Write a sequence for this structure.
């Protein structure tokens, strides 16, 4: 079935348009350009959700940066964080003495970011900050500092622009809210 047919069945409403997302990237990129002036940060993308945001964000940053990725997962295929963070694949770059900027699509409980920040600090990074597109505070269980974020969101299940529903729909250009009945249907299976 084409992607668009399926999307209309699962999306309740659009939360952020392509323009909204672009504007958030421009604003964050400007701020990061100022804050990282004269530095050579290592930008660490958290796979897989952050890929679209990272590629748009770094192109709005006028900074000499390096990019690397870590695959860290806390959700599995479910709707709620499993509470356990797993390191699935690691960085190639040595972070010792580096200014590291973690890029994430969303922070929810905060467990994933806390895990990444603690690990990178333990490995000797000079500084570890994060830039998150969406900041969902309702389920936060961890005291983790969010240095930069695009927008706050409510306690809704969001998909698109890297955010998935059962690992699909990451390639949606906008961010939408999943219909509540879809969550109920999947939870009842
Ligand atoms: C999602 C998201 C963040 C994390 C946030 O990743 O991309 O990494 O959950 O949740 P938390 O604040 O409760 O830890 P997920 O584990 O679903 O992997 P994915 O990026 O591959 O979709």
């Amino acid at each position: 079935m084409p992607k668009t047919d399926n999307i209309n069945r699962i999306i309740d409403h659009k939360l952020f348009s392509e323009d909204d997302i672009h504007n958030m990237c421009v604003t964050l990129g400007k701020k990061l350009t100022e804050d990282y002036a004269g530095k050579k940060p290592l930008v660490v993308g958290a796979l897989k959700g952050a890929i679209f945001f990272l590629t748009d964000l770094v192109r709005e940053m006028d900074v000499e940066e390096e990019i690397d990725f870590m695959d860290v997962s806390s959700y599995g295929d479910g709707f709620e964080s499993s509470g356990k963070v797993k390191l699935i694949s690691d960085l190639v770059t040595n972070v010792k003495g580096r200014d590291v900027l973690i890029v994430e699509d969303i922070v929810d409980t905060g467990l994933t970011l806390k895990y990444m920040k603690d690990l990178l600090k333990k490995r000797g990074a000079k500084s570890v900050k994060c830039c998150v597109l969406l900041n969902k505070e309702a389920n936060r269980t961890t005291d983790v500092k969010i240095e930069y974020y695009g927008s706050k969101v409510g306690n809704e299940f969001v998909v698109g622009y890297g955010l998935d529903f059962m690992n699909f729909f990451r390639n949606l250009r906008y961010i939408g809210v999943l219909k509540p009945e879809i969550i109920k249907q999947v939870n009842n299976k």
Notes: DSSP finds five helices and nine strands in the chain. The pocket of PRP is lined by residues 46-49, 73-75, 81, 104-112, 164 (CB under 6 Å). Residues 18-35 form the longest helix (18 residues). Strands lie at 11-16, 42-47, 66-73, 86-89, 99-107, 127-136, 148-153, 158-159, 175-178.
